[in-house]
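Sequence only, no structure available. Ideas?
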Amino acid sequence: MSAATVPATAARQTPDAPKPRGRRNSFQGGSPLVYGIALVVVALTLGPVLYGVLGGFRTNAQLAESPAGLPSPWVLSNYTGVLTNPSFWTYALNSAVIAVVTTTIVVVFGTMAAYPLARYQFRGREALFTVFVVGLLFPATVAVIPLFILISRDLHLGNTWWGVALPQAAFALPLTVVILRPFLMALPKELEEASMLDGTSRIGFFWRIALPLSGPGMVTVGVLAFVASWNAYLLPLLLLQGDMKTLPLGVADFSSEHSADTAGVFAFTSLAMIPALVFFLAMQRRIVSGLQGAVKG
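Reply:
I predicted one. Tokens follow.
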């Protein structure tokens, strides 16, 4: 025999040719059209803000000569003039106090209202929750005249911090309850039963377990209430006067008094929006996680 016959099973088998892979999409997150639309939206949103901030570093002559140009040279006198203005700090203090009081009321009472709607079983629970949901449809603007009469004439809280903070908190409660209820409902029933076996009361479970686990939701509603109160204009316009005015009202007064000083108005406006903007950006991740938890719940 000239050569041994190689068994078929021992024959070398050529590996299969790799399957052709589809062309990878260079835009893993979406199509170029989506990115283009997003860039346009970002430009339209941030464009006026950047224009105002940069305008504060220019002189009125530069703005008149080249409205769309960059500062050349950069001028700091507009911002320093605003920062040395006592009225600016008075307005900022009023805005901060009203925003903190509003946020505290919203978080405390919103959590206390959402807890029984989430954990207790009683007749009319869903109907009561529907009342809060319907409350989302009624902004403070539609009731501003009755609020003005009620606060100024009946409660005698006109031109005070409480007179603005209480209505703002009341109109922020529906959104607070809607966001916090899913967080509290998502807590396992077994966790509550185990705490009861250890001797914890319902109030103890609320303070020691429910509140810490609902932290992201509380931060979310707190940030939203703070930013909304800081930017409020119509209600403070009707209720506050003189040195009790907030920063949005101060911006309007400064713009009318210094209408010829466009660069100064830009500087005043930019400094007025910085606290709320920084606070919102610092809490952005917590807000996203809080809203995600509310949706999942």
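Residues 86-119 form the longest helix (34 residues).
Hope that gets you unstuck.
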